Amino acid sequence: MKRTFITLVMAVVAISMTACGSAGFGKGKVDSLSYAVGADLGLNLNFGMGDMDLDRDVVKASILDFYKNGDVEGEEIKALRSRMMEYQYTHVMPFMNAKRMQSMIETDCPDTLPALPALYDENFTREDVSKMIGSNMGAWIKGLRAELDMKSVMRAVDDGLALESAEHIDSLMLLTQQQMRDVFTAYTAEQKRIMEEERQAKLAENAEASAAWLAEVEKMDGVQKTESGLLYRIDREGTGAQATKDSSVVEVNYEGKTRDGKVFDSSYERGESISFPLNGVIKGWTEGMKLVKEGGQITLWIPSELAYGERGAGADIGPNEALEFKVELIKVTE
After folding, report:
1. Do 332 and 248 meet the contact criterion of CB atoms below 8 Å apart?
2. Rounded to an integer, what distance in angstroms lies between the CA atom of residue 147 and that of residue 134?
3. Smallest Cα–Cα separation from 291: which of 257, 322, 329?
4. Which of 149, 228, 257, 284 is surrounded by the fewest CB atoms within 10 Å?
5. Are residues 94 and 164 in the same domain?
């Protein structure tokens, strides 16, 4: 049961399936998921982070404050986690390593062992660290995307902190460890279901919007369509060589946009061209770069199935997104 506190100092990112429990839970007395969440935090503070001698009142106040007022995607939490990482490397790791070394020394006089490194100093005070950990816990709770009863959460935190031994979890807390595992399993399954519904809705939305956009592009002067559905326009005729093989290597300058006009990639912005084999890129590029000669420029409107499909790519290219590329072909190497 006992866990090193190093995990939660770095970040509260997962619900433990072993830290919680008790019979005697009555429906209506407390929300089960809320209690499970709070119990996990309280037990970690008690048994996993006991060596830190945190100011527990500050931790609890910071949990509530961030849950009520914090932004899980804002700069505040990014700065907080960066500072926690710094604390991890400068204080926690040396402390844990020294404590491990102490445990390996056999002696009848433990008072003669070297002192452990300090966990707190003028840069990382006890209050400061307690607030950081509490805020991070509050951010984790807020990020669960669940309707929680914070009174039940904080009651469970207190219950976990009040235990004198991890052996008494099942008998003294409101849920047994098995009941907790069942709660978390049900929560995880529900979140997966919701995320899949959202993904399917986004797939359908993007597919419909991309099809409508490509239909409008196809009406533009000079735009042609290949058998695969690729739309293209020769903006400048080239006079040099033309790629004919999938293994051909091309050197290009290019700019990629989403259908709403957002530039997501640009060799122009980087200030240098790029070379690649045509069989190493998306299908729309493999086909499209064979339609223009060296020295020419082409605009490609690429359907999702010839681009990144249902998986999308990065933060800017969603699933089933059609894309636009302006490409200048500098050189072809067969």
Report:
1. yes
2. 20
3. 329
4. 228
5. yes
The angle formed by the CA atoms of residues 141, 1 and 52, to the nearest 5 degrees, is 65
Burial class (CB in 10 A: 0-12, 13-18, 19+), 52: buried
- Report d(CA 85, CA 152) in Å as an integer: 30
pLDDT score at 222: 96
Length of the chain: 334
pTM: 0.65
Residue 11 belongs to domain spanning: 6-175
Say if 192 falls within a structural domain.
no
User: Is position 12 within any domain?
Assistant: yes
Give the separation between CA 330 and CA 240, rounded to whole angstroms: 9
* DSSP label at residue 25: -
Number of compact structural domains in the chain: 2
Ranking 183-187, 254-258, 271-275 by mean pLDDT, the lowest is: 183-187
Contacts 24+ apart (CB under 8 A), 107-112: none
CB atoms within 10 A of CB 169: 24
Looking at the fold, whether 262 and 168 belong to one and the same domain comes out as no
Q: What is the pLDDT of residues 111-127, one digit of tens each?
A: 666 788 899 999 999 99
DSSP bridge partners of 231: 225, 301
Q: Check residue 171 and give its pLDDT.
A: 87
What is residue 71's DSSP assignment?
-
pLDDT: which is higher, 103 or 45:
45
193 within a domain of the structure (yes/no) = no
- Retrieve residue 11's tokens: 């970040």
Is residue 287 within 8 A of residue 217, CB to CB? The reply is: no
Based on the domain organization, do 31 and 151 belong to the same domain?
A: yes
Asked if 276 and 250 count as a contact pair (C-beta separation under 8 A), the reply is: yes
* Domain-embedded: residue 319: yes
